[in-house]
Structures are given as C-alpha cells and as structure tokens.
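Dear U.,

For the methods section draft, I wanted the exact inputs and outputs in one place so we can describe them consistently. I've listed the two proteins in the order they'll appear in the manuscript figures. Please don't edit the token lines directly; just add comments below if something needs changing.

First protein:
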Amino acid sequence: MRSVVRLLLLTTLVVLVSACASNQQEEVLPEKTYYENARDAMNSGNFNEAEQNLDSLETYYPFGRYAEQAQLDLIYARYQNLDLEGARAAADRFLRLNPQSDHADYALYMRGLASYNLDIGLAARYLPIDVAARNPGEQTQSFRDFSELLSRYPDSQYAADARQRMIAVRNRMAELEIYAARYYIKREAYVAANNRARYIVENYPTSPIVEEALVILAETFRFLDFKKGTQDAIAMLRDNFPKSSAFNEAGEFEPDVLKGESRSLSSVITFGLMGDE
C-alpha cells in the first residue's frame, strides 16, 4: 500500500514539474512582435495565426501601445475565421473598454454584421434550409446594431452599407411572416393566415413580399365573408400591383391560394384562432 501511495505521489510530482517546465519554456515576445506577426498573418489570410498573436498581445500587454488596434483586429480576425459569436463578443468588449473611441462605429458595424450572418452560416450555404423559417432573434439584434450605428454615427463610412442591410433585415422579417401565413393556409387556419398577411402590410409596406401578403389578405377576407376587408385589400393590390397575377385578363381578382379547403367556416375560424396563439 505504501508503495502505491509513493508511486502516486511520484507521478503527481512528475506532472507538476513537467507543467512548470513547459510554462518556463513559453517565451513572451515583445509587444511589437506580436502585433507585426498578427498583421502579417492577416495580410496572408492566416486568421488562425493572427488570432493567436492578438490573444497573446492582449494577455501580456492589455494596456500597451497596440492594445486598441489589437482589439479591433481581433474582431476582424474572428469574423474572417467564421467565429461570428466570437467576433460579436470581441466587438462588445471593445465598445465596453473604448466607448469614446474614434473606431466605435466600426465595432458597432462589425457587431451588427456578425449577427446579420449568424443564422446564415455554413449550414445554410450547403443545406436546403429556408432562412425565412429561422428564428428572427439574430436579425432583430443586427437591426438594432445597425440602427444604433446610424443614430450615433450618421456620417460613418459604414452607414450606407448598414442602411442597406437594415432594409434586407426588414425584408427577411417580412419573409418570415409570409412563411407563417403559407403554413397556416396549408393547415386551413385562415384567420391566422389573415393576421400574418395584415401584419406584413402594416409593418413592412415596402417589402417585395407585400404583393403576396395582399393577395392572401384579400382571399382570406373573402373566404371569411368580410366584404369590406376584401374590397379594401383588392383595391390596395390593384393600386400598387396592377399587373399582379392575381388578376385575370379581364382585370378581375382570381387568386388560387385557398384551393382545396374542405372544412366548414366555423371550424376554420376556431382552428385559426387557436393556431395563432
């Protein structure tokens, strides 16, 4: 028994000595060396190596000459490395440590860009995943970041791109609503589909998907026998999309989005109300 204890103590001692030796062998480079290594790595597209040098720079020289620029470079390196959550975290950290920085607009822009692309990552590039069917949380966050950028730095060089991405985000949000409306139509939950279509028209009137939303709105109103709602929706569709395929050659409203309904009106309304809770 004593021999076993001695063996365990000896093993532990060897491990501790080895760890100390490895720590002693780790050489701390000058601040400028880490920075130049990181820049060279980024210029050559080696963002893994760049990130390692930037992490070391922050670890050993957190308040050094290159600290602020290293934090900015780390945001970029992580973004290019497809570490979008890491890029967003690095942007958060930069804004927290340097709230008055001249480069705060860049950090805000990159934080929004990371969120913008977070739910359209590698999986969506190679798999048939409908982006409109995804959780809108990341898109909402990116919209907030870009909105904050435009509010605080309207003359920023990143403002124009941020503005265009905000439009894209709103279009994605509209697509999410139309996706839900189509789903409810398949389930014959027409009240719920009507609610989704109306939400698009009221909140995303400039979205390309608003034409389809108006068609769904008019058709579901007509099915539910709401004459005024039907007339208003058709009139709005005619004013904004006179060449819509929902109009036949005679100019009459003839959509086919509700083909195949087979249940009574009362069951549809009941199901619709339950389905949209």
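Second protein (the one for the lower panel):
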Amino acid sequence: MREGDLIAGFAKGLSVIETFNQQREKLSIADVARLTGLERASARRCLLTLVQGGYAEFDGKFFRLTAHVLKLGYAYLSSTPLPRIIQPFLEQLSEAVHESSSASILDGGEIVYVARSAQRRVMLIGLNVGSRLPAYCASMGRVMLAALPEDEARRRLDAVKREKHTPRTLTGTAELMKELAKVRQQGYALIDEELEIGLRSIAVPIHDSRGAVVAAANVGAQAMRVTSESLVQDVLPRLLKMQAELGKLLA
C-alpha cells in the first residue's frame, strides 16, 4: 500500500475516537493531543469535526462521544455473519452449563466481544458486545494467539503492555510463549484467576469451513462454584461439540 493512497486526516480522526474508553469518557483537547500524539491544533480540528458529524458533543471544556458512534460498530456487526450464527449456540451452551458464555475476535493484542450469553455476572467489570480485554491473559485471547505463527504471536505480545492483574497473571514473553505452545497442543486454553481473582474460564478456537481460526468461544465462571477440573471435564466437551458444529456453518 502506497502512502499516497492513504488519507492522513481520516486516520487521525479514527485515532481520536479510539482515545475514548470506559476510563476516559470525557476528554479535553489537551488530553486528546497528549494521548494521540497529535498537535493540539490537529486534535482540536478532529474533535470539532466529530461534533459537527454528531459523533461527539462538547460542554465548553470536555468532549465526549455520542451514541452516534455506535453506527460504526454496528456496520461491522451487521456485515459479518459470525455474531448472528454463533449467538444461538452460546445461548444453548449457557443454558446447559448454567454459566455465561461468549465469543470474540482478535484485534491486535486485544480480544473484542462479538456475542455473549450471560447467565450471571462473573467479572467486576461489565462485559458486553464490543468490550475489549487483553489477549495475553484471557482464555479466548490465548487460543487465538496460539493459532498464529509463533513469530506473529510474539510480535503481538511484545506490542502490548502486560500488566499483572493478579498474582497469577503470566506476563513474561518466554512463559507466555510456553503457555501458547501448550494451548496449541491441547486445543483449548484454561485461565485460572489470571485476569481477575475469583474468575476461571475455558476457551476453544472457532474455525471456518476451511479450518482457519476466525474467533474463539469460552465459558467463564466464579472460582467458588466451578473448579478447573470441572471446566475441563464437563464444559470442554460441550465447547468442542459447538466448535465442530460451527465449523460446518462458517464459510
């Protein structure tokens, strides 16, 4: 791709949108300039353009995104069959195991939730379609990273800041690559209180009809109710059955 084929202003606007999140619901021009690395004047123009288009609002000091931004995410959800195909399977799975289940895709070093069936809340943070979590310490992230060539998986790990969310969180490159090799061999990932104390989850990759990994699905449960052994013995067979059925449906 040639640099002349790119629209720099459009890229800057997208980077400004991505600056907002659950911890940064409202930002000043100076905040956006600092977080994006843009010149203050460029950040101001991007923000005012978003306001003009209805994607943001300004209270005289701070900017915040509006619900109009959801149209951008809905464009993806409505143009890909994955969420609507997998949703009924997740609902059946959750009903059978009495735990919440989810599906996500890999985006850089993060996973993005594209479907979810919630039986009960298992994490302190609320998870919904569009929620993001770091891939290195999430069960769905691990199975999707394990499906990549080793050098690509290592590159994605090295590109993100790996925080120790709990005393059990694996953060070192060597130990994570070793864990990915294990996940690759056994065909599933089990996370035991690495992302959040009291949370266990198990995930499998979801393949399309050609065998390529296009997503991941998991079941998450509170550690006080479900052991790691029961996730492997009771939940994993259901996940693998769903995996096989979805592989016939996804082009």
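Candidate sentences for the figure legend, describing the second protein: The chain has a mean pLDDT of 90. Strands lie at 56-58, 63-65, 100-107, 110-117, 132-134, 189-192, 199-207, 213-222.

Thanks,
Y.
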